[in-house]
């Protein structure tokens, strides 16, 4: 296999977990370990067709049950748990909506403002850079199941951008995105694709 062929195969596939009660209501969910809703389970099952027949060298998942169960329903019950894939820790803002937070901190976003008691962008970048290193260490495709903000952050770190750029990448539940390499540059191959939608 030529070096160019190896680059084509060097891909990182991202799946955001299925819907939970809090994701449906726009509440920030990190450490709260919520199950999928019935809609979330149904959407996760649709991921099977999108991901079957693809050879993944490794499959990783956040330890949260919403990610693990999505991986199971998508056909990957043996996904390896990786604590670095957990959602951005929101600290005191856990369970709140952006509208609620902005009542006291106008213009707040997780990307640009600190969350009291939560993680900084630098801390999130550090652990997601480890996920990227793990993906780059294998020849072939890596599939990860994780969360809205952590996957957006992972994408911008793959691209070599500052983590604040993650605010430009909308990511819905039960979607598939693919990061890759084109002529030596790490790129987005597809983003926020809803299987069967």
Automatic annotation (TrEMBL):
SUPFAM superfamilies: Phosphoglycerate mutase-like. Keywords: Isomerase. GO terms for molecular function: phosphoglycerate mutase activity. It holds the Pfam family His_Phos_1. It comes from the Bacteria. Its EC number is 5.4.2.12. This is Phosphoglycerate mutase. It comes from Aeromicrobium panaciterrae.
